[in-house]
Amino acid sequence: MMRLIKGKKIKLGIVGGGPKSWIGHVHRISSRFDDEYEIVSGVFSRNSNISKTFGKKIGIDKDRCYSNYQEMADKEAIRFDGIEVVAIMTPPSSHQVIAEKFIDKNIHIISDKPFTGDLLQAKKLFKKIKSNKNIKYALTHNYSAYPMVREAKVLVEKGKIGKVEYVNVEYVQDWTDGKIVNKKNAKKILKWKINKKIVGTSAVLNEIGSHAYHIACYVSGLKGRNVFADIKQVSKTVKMDNNAQVMINFNNNAKGLLWTSVMARGGVYGLRFRIFGTKGSIEWVQNDPGYLKFNPLKGAVKFLERGFFNAELSKKFSRIKFGHPEGYLDAFANIYKEFAESLRTKAKKRWFFPNEYEGLETAKFIEACRISNKRKAWTKIK
Amino acid sequence: MMRLIKGKKIKLGIVGGGPKSWIGHVHRISSRFDDEYEIVSGVFSRNSNISKTFGKKIGIDKDRCYSNYQEMADKEAIRFDGIEVVAIMTPPSSHQVIAEKFIDKNIHIISDKPFTGDLLQAKKLFKKIKSNKNIKYALTHNYSAYPMVREAKVLVEKGKIGKVEYVNVEYVQDWTDGKIVNKKNAKKILKWKINKKIVGTSAVLNEIGSHAYHIACYVSGLKGRNVFADIKQVSKTVKMDNNAQVMINFNNNAKGLLWTSVMARGGVYGLRFRIFGTKGSIEWVQNDPGYLKFNPLKGAVKFLERGFFNAELSKKFSRIKFGHPEGYLDAFANIYKEFAESLRTKAKKRWFFPNEYEGLETAKFIEACRISNKRKAWTKIK
Amino acid sequence: MMRLIKGKKIKLGIVGGGPKSWIGHVHRISSRFDDEYEIVSGVFSRNSNISKTFGKKIGIDKDRCYSNYQEMADKEAIRFDGIEVVAIMTPPSSHQVIAEKFIDKNIHIISDKPFTGDLLQAKKLFKKIKSNKNIKYALTHNYSAYPMVREAKVLVEKGKIGKVEYVNVEYVQDWTDGKIVNKKNAKKILKWKINKKIVGTSAVLNEIGSHAYHIACYVSGLKGRNVFADIKQVSKTVKMDNNAQVMINFNNNAKGLLWTSVMARGGVYGLRFRIFGTKGSIEWVQNDPGYLKFNPLKGAVKFLERGFFNAELSKKFSRIKFGHPEGYLDAFANIYKEFAESLRTKAKKRWFFPNEYEGLETAKFIEACRISNKRKAWTKIK
Amino acid sequence: MMRLIKGKKIKLGIVGGGPKSWIGHVHRISSRFDDEYEIVSGVFSRNSNISKTFGKKIGIDKDRCYSNYQEMADKEAIRFDGIEVVAIMTPPSSHQVIAEKFIDKNIHIISDKPFTGDLLQAKKLFKKIKSNKNIKYALTHNYSAYPMVREAKVLVEKGKIGKVEYVNVEYVQDWTDGKIVNKKNAKKILKWKINKKIVGTSAVLNEIGSHAYHIACYVSGLKGRNVFADIKQVSKTVKMDNNAQVMINFNNNAKGLLWTSVMARGGVYGLRFRIFGTKGSIEWVQNDPGYLKFNPLKGAVKFLERGFFNAELSKKFSRIKFGHPEGYLDAFANIYKEFAESLRTKAKKRWFFPNEYEGLETAKFIEACRISNKRKAWTKIK
């Protein structure tokens, strides 16, 4: 049976997201957005002093600032006012063990993406999650929480673009801080992302490619069946994947392309998908997230705006009236908000936040890409 | 001497923004954004039960949910844990009296726009604010808090577009809910906005035109000198200004146009400014707020992106890395955040949040428009 | 009775558009576009040698290159193979006398805009045109010939946006070549445009404001009733209008704003209109001319594309399949093409090219602006 | 020695582009654009009457309207006023034999793309062209003739984006006229494009993919080294390639992706390239062809506009001042114009129009794609 949430505000603990972390900042604002959570505990560093100092700064009792997640899980689990949810925002390869520890203590999980560092970990974690009926799990593939992405998902479900025939998705960034990466400066510029033990199977695929594959499946309703992947290293001496292009055959025989890069120079930054069906197509870009371009087979192109008159779904996941822009944080907070709602109710409802099934699928995709790239051949996702 | 802020979180009281209010929702999220405020008290309705029920729902002790602002000010002022800041989000004509009451109790003010309902009130309130050295005042002309609007302001100050010669600003919305407004349905559709006693001098100018004039002056660094205004009523029977077009002569001899409307049909919604100088021009639109278009006199158009490499100012007012969009709430929260910073420090620093001087100027502008419209002649702003 | 066109290609003469002329180039390409005209005669300079040299270069017999329009009209009129149409592309104040001369010779007229230099000339020319049933007249307000502008016109006619309530039109350019214009350099930079005898009533209004007013009326189907205009001089010493802002009351009680400038620094160049009705609104911008944004009162924004499935009218005035862009020349050539069609047929059809009625209206508007600016008062268009 | 052009206007013959042809219309307007050519002869149908009727309609003597290209070549070659250039706009597989016949008669060639139907033909034609020093050859990969595409080419050459690392190009259309293509309707909808004998190696790659590959190489200055291609049939029963996705390794070790489709539903139409180098990136889209987005490694994104102050190259290939749009025809005509210039001069100059080298390369690429798709393996371009 699901553990009950006791008070108005859900007691939230945090693992990761310390002083220099960007994503820590994002999670904390998102948890505050709708006044559903109270951050009461955390591990912000392996150094106990740093963890306590930072924790204090953000308003946490120093007794509940820990230097390792095991201690946190053990101690919080036995407090009468212990945390009910933990948000994990450490690097990929640690997601599994941390999540498992809290699952053992019946604490719900919000985990940053990717699901885990590799497929082996993913299978273990998935099994663990399914083994404990007391806990719920959410994965912050946050782009899927933009109102118009969810509007797109439902529009495809309703058959508005017909049978999906082609999916084009890309997520391109530039991580190089304006420099040519070489052996000497790689560690300074790219940090733990060049350490496979930390980043997992593939830097570019785990860090941002996972978002691209997730959103493609999330909106199209499809799963990949097999892939042909071509993954590039930064250079011969610096071992980190920095670009991946993947052809995908989907389970309904649709085809698709995924391109993800962390070396797309010049501030060209962006997540975008285009999905083509027998009756029309849709397009969405993160840099203009309040709009969904809908191209019916015949007739005028339509710009569906977040919260417009007929868009019930996008209204549900909006806070601000249409005409005013929402952004990245508003979408990220949608995951926190809906997860809270799911914890408070016993009702069977449809939830839109990404979950462990989606996490496992994405890990399978990345592993298939790794193998395909090595074999230079089409490879089954399994 | 300025009153000191005692703890980590600033104790915030709210007047207005009850159950059905959109702007109440906006203020509350904004106050939580950066964890600087704690909402501990409020008047959410003149009906005591409604006020308490709503207050409780958002986590406020029922003893601190009041049914009128006078009681709230009197009681909070004598509590040892009383509010330090009040946020006022009632209709325009009540801003002055409410603010004055709290000023008398040495409580800082964050007020929704416009400054007041009319110029008479504005002059009184301005005087009152200046009379009490213990308090600080912020006015939520929130659009001026977008990072790229502030980047624009500084860019103009630095002379990047030369001497300003022309300012074009517009804020257009559609308030009619898809209906033709007539005597019968006016009250249902437009509510208190058709009541001049509540909305003040002019519905369209007070409610959204004030934003347009404010942002034009904020960014250009200019003040209007005189105006020629043409204001339109909804219809002969329904007395509410729904469209205003204003020619402006600025204090440096620049000319300008302001257009604001609440009957711009078809979901065309938007705040936009374009400012032309002797060395170039800039353009910004609220629907794509992370970009500032900068057109130098010669050479390529530049798209300055929020948080990009050289934009120190826009970085200061951003939370999210460039490449990801921020929205309306992020900007609104910038006012709350910087106001908190201003309350915590004794240092002389430059603050970017709108203040009572800007409020008074905008009230003068609206009054001059009212007179010009009546006289059908150029009218001095005074 | 209308004069008949004898052969396949219409014999075209040209007055103006000599060696350094941009607009001459435009007219000549436009006349060739659809293989309907043959340029056989012209006045390209008052200097006979220059006229002949230039004429020869573009393939005209030197006997038919003249140094003044009177001689050209007289001689061409008596040739058995004389011109059937003359295209006039001299500065505004000469349009009337030149056109009248050719009208007397029963030669059809394609005239560059504006109709004439001032209202007095306009009234004379209009009367002259109406007095000769043998000739037809077209005025190259070329922007009205873009397919999607004509689609917009018909969409308004059909009531798709309901009763028009507001019209916003602007045409802004920068003529200063990146310089601050002063007494010394004015003549070099702005040429005959600072000479009122040549440019007519107002430089900015005659040269580009006339396009803005024309397109506003063309699409909305309205006429201005009275105006309040504010026109600016370049400087005290340089007498040329470089900026005009005009409030317009239309004949159906709609209101509107027109802004036109030749000092909008930074390459911001553009003609745009937005028309708001009781059932929706439309927007078109010259820089993306293949699209018409149509905002119905409720529901999604539609992007109507030139030549798309249901757009019969825009297909009629297109040459290239949708998906591929058309530009300025394609639109300009539409006037030449349809004028040829109108000359070849005796059938009563609706023609979309601008004519003398529209020319006269625009001249009245400009004169009313001049007077209003002087009087600083609302002024009737008459 | 190159054959001389005798008079002002170049005598042009046309093979193909008959009554129902769209591309015929395009070529004819393009040839007239700059008054350099005179169409004096043609084969517009294999039916002699149709050919003569159509030819007469467009102003050609009926004696010079032929029903087969051999007769045309033979007869025109011996006329004292015979054609100097032939423009070929028949389906792909006939390009080689037709061109060869005219080459034998020392007549210059403007050929529509692709170069030929397949690689075997391409090699033969290339050899033939190189064997006759008297003739020149231009291939209408027209998109490369947009001013800003040529500006992009030179910008890359000058090293403004550094060493090219990644090329992303796509050309997507919908040829299905809003229908689901099946065995029954395929021939009606897709015509000769489903006949491999006519369309050549691959419908989608020959008809539009060839443009995409050409423009990628044209601008980047690279050649493909090997490819991995995945080409899709319309259906099991209808044999026509309708979608191709190709990974490309370029000769400088850059990687790239090409996607081309004729089943991209909903009017999404477009050619676009993005090229990423070590110092920045560029982006261009055909639907907004007057702009080149240039993203330097650091600092603001620049929108380079056709004809702007510093863009000498784009000015050279423009006719209309910046601020006004040019379109598809203006670009197409650039090939005709520059080809005329190349025929009139003996000077050694750099020409920007596509030629036989580029044609051969594209044919090699398409053949490599065909083989790769069959082998499901990376395949060398040779």
List keywords for this structure.
homotetramer, 382 residues, alpha/beta, Rossmann fold, Dihydrodipicolinate Reductase, domain 2, 2 domains, nine-stranded mixed beta sheet, 15 strands, 24% strand, globular
Cα end-to-end separation of chain A? 31 Å
CATH homolog superfamily of the largest domain in chain A: Dihydrodipicolinate Reductase, domain 2
User: Taking Cα atoms only, what radius of gyration of chain A do you get, to the nearest Å?
Assistant: 21 Å
CATH class of the largest domain in chain A: Alpha Beta
Q: Which pair of chains has the greatest number of interface residues, and how are they split between the two chains?
A: A-D, 40 and 40 residues
Instruction: Report the biggest beta sheet of chain A as strand number plus sense, adding barrel if it closes.
Output: 9 strands, mixed
List the helices and strands and how they pair.
4 copies of one chain form a homotetramer.
Chain A: E1 10-16, H1 22-33, E2 37-43, H2 48-57, E3 65-66, H3 69-78, E4 85-89, H4 95-104, E5 108-111, H5 119-131, E6 137-139, H6 147-157, E7 164-172, H7 186-190, H8 196-199, H9 203-220, E8 224-233, E9 241-250, E10 255-261, E11 270-277, E12 280-285, E13 291-296, E14 301-305, H10 312-316, H11 328-344, H12 356-375, E15 379-380
Parallel strand pairs in A: 1-2, 1-4, 2-3, 4-5, 5-6, 7-10
Antiparallel strand pairs in A: 7-11, 8-9, 8-15, 9-10, 11-12, 12-13, 13-14
Helix pairs in contact in A: 1-11, 4-5, 5-12, 6-9, 9-12
